[in-house]
Amino acid sequence: MFDSFDFIDALLRYFALLVTILGCAIVYAYVAYRYAQDCVDTSSISGAKISFNPSRYFDPIGSGLFPAIMILLQAPIMFGWSKNIFVDYSRVISSYGFNSAILLESSGIFFHFFIAFLSSLFLDISPNSQITSFLQYIILFNIFFAFIKLCPILPYEGLRILSYIGLKFQSDLFARLYSFLAPYQIFVLLIVFFTPLNNLILYPALFVIGFLL
User: Fold this and answer.
1) How far is residue 124's CA from residue 201's CA, in Å, rounded to a whole number?
2) DSSP 158-195
3) For the chain: N or C, fewer Cβ within 10 A?
4) Element (DSSP H or E) covering residue 87
5) CB proximity list for 104: less than 8 A, separation 6 or greater
6) Does 107 reside within a domain?
7) Along the 213 residues of the chain, how does pLDDT read in single tens digits?
8) Which domain does 139 fall in, by range?
């Protein structure tokens, strides 16, 4: 299994994944603290204030052990997670309105698209193949993460955004759908990944990746 293992490539993939998940967590924390500071609980990242230090958002399992195992097993897909601040969305909505809740939920998705686009700008001026590979991995991870989060049948940011938009216009259809799916999110994710429903993610993601690469 390890005969064809490329250690350098594995490191590049791992650090690209860290940029993806830790960068998203930092942006989300900043936006939450900037626009709804009194609704934020930072205890999960071991501090009273928002920090730009990535280590504060590093989860030993989700950012370390789990991705490392996937790399060693040479898994065809990679994902992970970070520590995140807790935001009381009921307080956000009551104090700042639905627009603020939508902004918070959108922040991570905007980060994914922004960092992918920024990486694509540097591909042609990359000084060596390793940096080129690193930038390509950043693009791949961020675009796939963005479209997973945007998928309207997964209980993630996209469906929550639709829920808040619906509630803003007096419709609870998407909010009820989210409440129904949320307890089973891992099972819903597996169903989408391993059935033709994955085209909801693959087609738009591959189109954007093809454009950026």
Assistant:
1) 27
2) HHHHHHHHHHHTT--HHHHHHHHHGGGHHHHHHHHHTS
3) N
4) strand 86-87
5) 28, 31, 32, 35, 36, 87, 89, 92
6) yes
7) 555 677 888 899 999 999 999 999 999 989 988 888 888 877 766 655 677 888 889 999 989 999 988 888 877 778 888 988 888 999 999 999 999 999 999 999 999 999 999 999 999 887 888 999 999 999 999 999 999 999 888 888 999 999 999 999 999 999 999 999 988 888 888 888 888 988 989 999 999 999 999
8) 7-212
